Amino acid sequence: MYNTPKLSVVGAGPGDPELITIKAVNVLKSAKVVLYDALINRELLEYAPQAEHIFVGKRKDKHRYSQDEINELIVKHALERGHVVRLKGGDPFVFGRGSEEIGYARSKGLETQVVSGITSSVAVPANVGIPLTQRGTSESFWVITGTTSQKKLSDDVRLAAQSTATVVILMGMSKIAEIADVFSRAGKEDTPVGIIQNGTTANERSGFGTVENIVEVVKKKKLTAPAIIVIGEVVKE
Question: Strand ranges (DSSP E) for 46-96?
Answer without folding.
Answer: 52-55, 58-59, 62-63, 83-88
